[in-house]
Each structure stands twice: as structure tokens, then as C-alpha cells.
Design brief:
Length: 342
């Protein structure tokens, strides 16, 4: 019988896809990380092709051939699995590929939540390129948001923070807004002198609009320097995170519980203490005993643990998987020539 794993765990966000193959005892057989490029649509051919590429590389790392199935159970926690129709579309694609004998499709927020707590319930907030939130109650009830951008009432993540930075930079320069260091710092990031030059570069397609996401760390840096306009953007982001998390808590009636709130994604890679304090205050105003934590482990750990939950594995399996699935481990993979590279 051809070798295969017990679990394939996949975490796919807006910037990368991690995949890992594990035994039922939590032993990691192989893992990979790939950077994602723009894909056509949620669950579309290019989106899922990138998932398949990550899985293929993990299979090579594990010494498991490319022919499916590579594992008995697949747990796919993917950005873009926002609406039930998205879930079904991805499920159909996965069923056709027969990558795994059984498929579980979840939004990537579920991986963040599971990786950040030893419980199987709580609130998970992802704030990376975009933003999303999901929550699970102790009795298994679930709530989530569509999280498909402004049309579903969302604001936040690097893309929105970056756009806000340019918006304020332009208005600071032309007099419609308050003075701000952003007027110089934003265009300088792209080697330009004036916000108007950056606007024209975006308008005429000389610079992809997606690159505005690069401005998010700059906004936090300028805010830490005392700029009131940048601080306003950072505060708005904190308030949006609070709004999502507390709405989920109230929907599931968890206000009086010691509910874990796990924060994951690039926006949380900041040393801005006032940003986190604002989030803590907002969440504790609704759920006084809530425990807010920033996820430092790779979210694919959560996808793996969801698989172990499904199999009913013992506690040692979770610890074993968690110890092995580090960022360093995922950053090292085997390419087609058999050479290990970073």
C-alpha cells in the first residue's frame, strides 16, 4: 500500500499558504510554505492551484508521491472561504482532486483561533491583507462574518490602512486635511516626493494598487512618533477589531465567560502598546474576563490541531505537532531538484 499521512493541514492567507502532513500521533512528516500571488477568485482555478502547489511541496518533503490521496483527512483553512457558497465551491474542487480521503473546509480565522488556545472554542480575528473574524461557543455554535470588503461592512487590514494613509497624505498636502508626516513618508516609501505623484502612478497603472498594503507598518511607525493623523488610522483599526470580536462574543452570549480572543495576522506585528491597550479595553468592556492573545505560532498549527480534534488524538499529539510546526520549519522546504533552500 502506498504511504500516506493521516492528516493534511493547510492554512492559506492573503500572502502565503502553509501545508503540513502529519501522523495521527502529531508527528510532522513534511511541510512547506509558498508565497501566494493574485488569484482569480475565491475557489477559482488559480486560487486552488496554489493550494495544490503547497501540498505538492509538503508531499515531496515527506517523501509522499504526487498521486492522491496524500492523507486520509484534509483540513483546509483558507482565506476566501467567507460565504457558504465559497465553502461549497472549494469543497467540490477538493472532492474532485481526491487529495485527501475526507475534506474539511474552514475559513483561515478558524486556524488562528485553534492555534492560539488549548480550548476548542473562542474568538479568532485575522488582520493581515484584509480582516475577518469567527467564533465558536463552548457548545459548538459558530458565528462568522462575510468579510468580503466594504460591501459587507468591513474595514481594516493592510490594504485599507494603506489606502487610508495615502488618502490622508494627499489631503495633508493639498490643504483639505490636517498636516501630517504621512504627506512626506507615504510617497517616500515608493521613491517619490509628493502624494500626487503616487496618486498618478496608481491611476495610470504604473504602480499596482495592491502595493499600498506595504504602508501599514509605516502608519504604525509614524503613529508611534506622535503624528495625530496616523494615530487616528491606528485607532480606527483597533476599534474595528473590537467591533468584530465583541459582536461575535455577544452573538454567542459569551460575555460572562473567560473567552479566549486570538489575534493573528501581519497587523499585529507591531510594538505599539497603545494599539493593543485600546483593543483590550474595548473587548473587556463587553467581556470582562476575556483573555486576549497575539498568535506567534504559524496558524497551520491550528489546522493540524483541528485535524487531531477530528481524529480524537491524545494530548501528546498536539504538543508534538506544535513543537514541530515552527516558522523556521515551514520556511525550509525541498524544491524539485532535491536541494533544501530557504
Amino acid at each position: 500500500m502506498r504511504r500516506r499521512a493521516a492528516i493534511l493541514a493547510v492554512d492559506g492567507g492573503g500572502s502565503k499558504i502553509d501545508a503540513a502532513l502529519l501522523r495521527a500521533d502529531g508527528t510532522v512528516l513534511g511541510a512547506s510554505r509558498i508565497a501566494t500571488s493574485d488569484f482569480d477568485e475565491n475557489g477559482g482555478p488559480e486560487h486552488m492551484r496554489q493550494v495544490l502547489e503547497a501540498v505538492s511541496r509538503a508531499g515531496r518533503d515527506a517523501g509522499i508521491g504526487p498521486e492522491p490521496p496524500v492523507a486520509d483527512l484534509g483540513v483546509y483553512c483558507l482565506a476566501g472561504a467567507d460565504l457558504p457558497a465559497d465553502d461549497r465551491k472549494m469543497q467540490r474542487w477538493l472532492d474532485r482532486t481526491e487529495l485527501t480521503g475526507e475534506n474539511i473546509v474552514r475559513n483561515d480565522t478558524f486556524a488562528v483561533l485553534r492555534a492560539g488556545t488549548d480550548r476548542e472554542w473562542g474568538v479568532g480575528v485575522v488582520c493581515g491583507f484584509g480582516t475577518n473574524c469567527s467564533a465558536v461557543a463552548p457548545d459548538g455554535r459558530i458565528t462568522r462574518f462575510p468579510a468580503v470588503g466594504a460591501i459587507s461592512g468591513d474595514w481594516g487590514g493592510g490594504a485599507d490602512v494603506g489606502e487610508a494613509a495615502l488618502w490622508h497624505a494627499v489631503r495633508a498636502e493639498d490643504g483639505r486635511g490636517s498636516p501630517s508626516v504621512l504627506a512626506e513618508a507615504v510617497p517616500a516609501h515608493f521613491g517619490m516626493r509628493r502624494p500626487r505623484q503616487l496618486t498618478e502612478a496608481l491611476y495610470y497603472g504604473r504602480l499596482p494598487q495592491d502595493r499600498l498594503v506595504e504602508l501599514a507598518p509605516l502608519v504604525f511607525e509614524v503613529a508611534l512618533g506622535g503624528d495625530a493623523v496616523a494615530r487616528g488610522i491606528v485607532d480606527r483599526q483597533a476599534d474595528e477589531i473590537v467591533a468584530m470580536a465583541t459582536t461575535a462574543i455577544k452573538r454567542l452570549r459569551m460575555q460572562r465567560l473567560e473567552v479566549p480572543v486570538v489575534l493573528g495576522g501581519g497587523i499585529f506585528r507591531t510594538d505599539d502598546r497603545s494599539f493593543f491597550d485600546r483593543i483590550d479595553r474595548g473587548i473587556h468592556a463587553v467581556a470582562p474576563d476575556a483573555r486576549c492573545t497575539v498568535l506567534t505560532d504559524p496558524p497551520v498549527v491550528g489546522a493540524a490541531w483541528l485535524g487531531l480534534d477530528h481524529l480524537g488524538s491524545g494530548r501528546a499529539a498536539y504538543a508534538r505537532a506544535g513543537r514541530a510546526l515552527t516558522h523556521a520549519r515551514l520556511a525550509t522546504h525541498t524544491d524539485a531538484t532535491g536541494k533544501e533552500r530557504r
